[in-house]
Specification:
Layout (H helix, E strand, L loop, with lengths): L1 E2 L2 E6 L4 E6 L2 E3 L2 E8 L6 H16 L4 E6 L7 H10 L4 E3 L2 H4 L18 H8 L2 H12 L2 E16 L14 E4 L3 H9 L3 E4 L5 H6 L5 E4 L1 H6 L8 E17 H6 L2 H35 L4 E4 L2 H16 L4 H12 L1
Parallel strand pairs: 5-6, 5-7, 9-10, 9-11, 12-13
Antiparallel strand pairs: 1-4, 2-3, 4-5, 7-12, 8-11, 8-12
Helix pairs in contact: 1-10, 6-11
Length: about 325
């Protein structure tokens, strides 16, 4: 018996048609599609390809995964919608877009919450991560892990950012992440949300003066070509939640679910390793490039200027979760 489950769905926001085989099974074959927004060479892109290879190898070719990167299937918000409706199987998504359906996820990006990436891994791999996974399932998503979207820094085309007041009057692109918006508004910048795949042109044309991202994203999307000032603000860490559609997940056999989880865990460990290795290499490359102006910052005044952000987040309806997250990060 052959069951055909391929669908074609129109995505929101005029993105066009998303063509994704949700889950097809024929004589034991499983076909899945994974979407992400990262450019080739980005740790997320490399690890997604590794995930596909692991599934193919460990299933002896029975599980076939198509990876559609560089926002081929729409932006991150559109892919979250597609996951929830079952027209997309998997996505290594962004923290900002995913927080639209799970607001407490954004709290992982509270300013200066984690001193190092390893501290963030400890939190998302522990009780806090388990709680987020339960909350994701309640909104139709299966969390397969939390990949590393890096410690984020600020770039712009006008001047080095040495003090918070240097951001005043600058137009800064942020993702649709409420914590990031709160951070930059607290620092005096004007914020604007622009799709990441449109960001290079927006910076080139002066729609915005600057943006914030980890070094890996700045390099893989060539943002340094249009933003020569790279200021190492290190204002927050973000994850890339690896999510599956609960609709598609329910159609997988238990043994295939275990295989997918194991492959996701292994690919995620590789992604984190690559993220940290690439960060160190890129920092050296950027500093050696005369066309790029890299500067350190004294984080103390930035911490002081953004201290009220965490307090405001504790006043939200899920403030208890935020307090437990902050306590866990401080322990």
């Amino acid at each position: 018996m052959t069951i055909t489950l391929t669908r074609r769905a129109a995505l929101l926001g005029g993105i066009g048609a998303l063509c994704a085989p949700a889950l097809a099974r024929a004589q034991g074959q499983v076909r899945l599609t994974l979407g992400h927004g990262a450019a080739p060479g980005n740790p997320r892109s490399i690890a997604a390809d590794r995930f596909a290879a692991l599934l193919r190898e460990r299933s002896n070719g029975r599980i076939e995964l198509r990876v559609a990167g560089s926002a081929q299937l729409g932006d991150d918000a559109a892919m979250v919608t597609a996951l929830r409706t079952g027209t997309l199987d998997l996505s290594v998504n962004s923290q900002g877009a995913s927080s639209a359906v799970l607001p407490e996820l954004a709290a992982l990006g509270l300013p200066f919450l984690f001193e190092r990436a390893e501290a963030a891994y400890r939190i998302v791999d522990g009780a806090i991560g388990e709680e987020l996974a339960r909350r994701f399932e309640a909104v139709g998503l299966i969390a397969l892990g939390f990949w590393d979207n890096g410690t984020r820094h600020t770039t712009n085309s006008r001047r080095a950012i040495l003090r918070p007041e240097d951001l005043r009057g600058l137009k800064i692109r942020t993702p649709p992440d409420p914590v990031t918006i709160d951070i930059f508004q607290a620092l005096g910048a004007a914020t604007q949300q622009i799709n990441f795949n449109e960001l290079y042109v927006a910076l080139q044309q002066g729609v915005v003066d600057g943006q914030e991202n980890p070094l890996a994203n700045i390099q893989s999307s060539k943002l340094f070509e249009v933003n020569r000032f790279v200021s190492l603000t290190g204002h927050k860490w973000e994850c890339n939640p690896f999510l599956a559609s609960r609709i598609a997940w329910a159609r997988l056999r238990p043994e295939d679910q275990r295989l997918v989880r194991d492959a996701a865990r292994e690919a995620g460990a590789e992604q984190r390793r690559l993220a940290q290795e690439i960060d160190l290499r890129l920092l050296a490359e950027f500093r050696a490039n005369p066309a790029i102006a890299v500067n350190e910052v004294d984080q103390a005044p930035f911490r002081a200027a953004t201290a009220a952000v965490a307090e405001r987040w504790e006043a939200r309806p899920f403030g208890d979760f935020v307090r437990r997250l902050r306590a866990a990060a401080a322990s």
